[in-house]
Fold this protein.
Amino acid sequence: MEVVILAAGKGTRMFSKKPKVLHTIAGTPLIGHVLESALMLAAQKIHIVVGYGSDQIYTYFKENRPQQNVIWSVQDEQLGTGHAVQQACPNIDHDATNNQVLILYGDVPLIRPETLASLLSDADDKTVSLLTLITTKNRGLGRILRNDSDEVIAIIEEKDATDAQKKITEVNSGIMAVPASLLEPFLRRIENKNKQSEYYLTDIIELAVADGYKINALTIDDEIEVQGINDKTQLALLERHYQMETVDRLAEEGVTLRDPRRVDVRGELICGEDVVIDANVLFEGSVTLGNNVIIGPNVSIKDSTIGPDTKILSGTIIENSKVGSETIIGPYARLRPGTILKNKVKVGNFVETKKVVIGEGSKASHLAYIGDAEIGENCNIGAGTIFCNYDGATKHKTILGDNVFIGSNSTLVAPVTLSDNAFVAAGSTVTVEVPEGSLAVSRVKQRNISGWKRPKKPSGG
Ligand code: UD1
Ligand code: CA
């Protein structure tokens, strides 16, 4: 079996510079969803027909699916779905016995591999297999024509249909499997004498019937599975549907979701036991939450691991970070890439971290910037502490041993080291090493001027 995915269309009604198949559902382009379903079947080859915006599609594959073997065909002008499949024909093995060509549409993203497998299960070299849908929402879709013996005899596009035909509720999903030996001869016979002057793939049904081949229609009634995306409304519909399926699955696995409609998973979320997720939470990429993790409202987490018994409080943003157990983060904390927090750490409100390791039991409870640093255990980073990691040209590192205390409103000018038990007085600027157990004070000494007269506003002005 070989798979051909059609992805050459612009998607005019998306009103976008991006080719339609690169618009995303749950963070993955439509073409990626179709590909994933195709990969679940044992396809010898996967062909993708591209045209509009092909460079963007190649770039997506290069960056996100570098290992994926794809045979590319180019359809320079989008002359119809039949013409599109024709572009892949030279690369298809027509002679192999009972080689089936499964045609998928790049804009029908949620097709289930199980459905495709059952469509293919009865396929042989005398049969064209067709996936159809019964729906009252048949607008814009090709209608299935059957004869008195209920056999499929043709597909008629809505634009070419009579009023009576338009009432037919069985429609073409777009998905079919055609014996490789028949495909090219059929496609060569298709004409573009229709309202859209396009070469319709769907016309091969009529040709196959005329030649005495059997049409094996598998009919389903799940509209979502074969819903094509032609505009942003349909994209939004499938996005929500997909999200609901994901959160339903999480709930079935025992995750408590305060409001399943207000959680988005764009990627893979793995949860331990007794995880609680509040409203308006976004997960992207690959995220793992340990047992008893609590995620507060309005949190975003991307490509990160959160250890057991940790609480992520409201408004926190975490990216490419690894957080230990029994840790508290937020509210309103921002962990940027390369943040590693060991266990029992506290990172409080308005604290930003980047490329930093914070040792067990250490705390930065309020208002701090901690970048390019290694911090030992049980340290205390006071409010308003800034790790000055950047000299305008290069980033430098700050190293803190264990039990270091940084008083509020201090600046640590990297590169600098503060050894175990170092203590920095509030308001200090630390530029040189602080040895073990020492106090660093670097601030202007206070002087008091007695009898100070406050400035007054000039009178009569
Ligand atoms: C198509 C079917 C219709 C079916 C519907 C299901 C035809 C003629 N019609 O209509 O019966 O009910 O899908 O969603 O097949 N494409 C190309 N090159 C082209 C034209 C299209 O690669 O020249 C690709 C598009 O990128 C898209 C897919 O084929 O991924 C479907 O094309 P689209 O124009 O959306 O077809 P529909 O009008 O929806
Ligand atoms: Ca379509």
About this structure: The mean pLDDT is 97. The pocket of calcium ion (ligand 2) is lined by residues 107, 228, 230 (CB under 6 Å). The two ends are 92 Å apart (CA to CA). The first strand starts at residue 2 and ends at 7.
